[in-house]
């Protein structure tokens, strides 16, 4: 048994599927399966019960997993510490970002982090809210940028800025003259929406459910830019975060605030281990605050790390 096999085992255990684990590890499925079989042979135990759909961990696998995590964490810490002797502590920072969260954050954040921490290898993934939280919990992400509060127990968040859910319509839409659109009015509109796996869609459905209504879905796309490009050619509407207008402005689209009630959105950094990630949280919060600060030099609704919950 070696650390590579332990890392492979942890990936299979957390994913419950060889294909997904292989994709996560960037290796082939046959190679991963062979490593797991060798680990079982070396330990003389069965770690998984194979079924047609997923792998079910045995009691031995649960025991090994609980011991493997601190071992792998200790090895990573040892590598980082030894890297200091070479004058460069290379470390990977994996960040998951929602597609609907201010898209200009990603390129600007990447450049700012690179300049502030030149020996930090930054990996940024565009994910759904559920996937961000799942990967934070299984350790394959360090930080998420998502809506607050986190939905999964064990995750903590610090607010970056406030946004609000906004109705987006074509320029020739019947509601084009309205300055604001009430939730009850918006509930009647045929919609082009993001898929149900997106958190913005879930927030919209929850708001309508409070009114005893369901969304009038006429079409779905899994890409925000695709929705905004398609809307001018339809009579449909959509709902998106208001900040998206800054990077997805379109002369044939109108952005109307929702009211009665207004739907606030809180966007922030999310992590699992506050103490371990505190320096990274502070770095990202500072860099993003500089990027998104308004005329007064402060982001709306920004908080310090004492806002962690």
TrEMBL record:
InterPro entries: LysR_HTH_N, LysR_subst-bd, WH-like_DNA-bd_sf, WH_DNA-bd_sf. Keywords: DNA-binding, Transcription, Transcription regulation. It holds the Pfam family LysR_substrate. One of its GO terms (cellular component) is protein-DNA complex. GO terms for molecular function: DNA binding; DNA-binding transcription factor activity. Residues 1-58 form the HTH lysR-type domain. The keyword Transcription applies. Gene3D superfamilies: 3.40.190.290, Winged helix-like DNA-binding domain superfamily/Winged helix DNA-binding domain (1.10.10.10). PANTHER family: HTH-TYPE TRANSCRIPTIONAL REGULATOR CYNR, TRANSCRIPTIONAL DUAL REGULATOR HCAR-RELATED. Belongs to the LysR transcriptional regulatory family. This is LysR family transcriptional regulator. It comes from Pseudomonas chlororaphis.
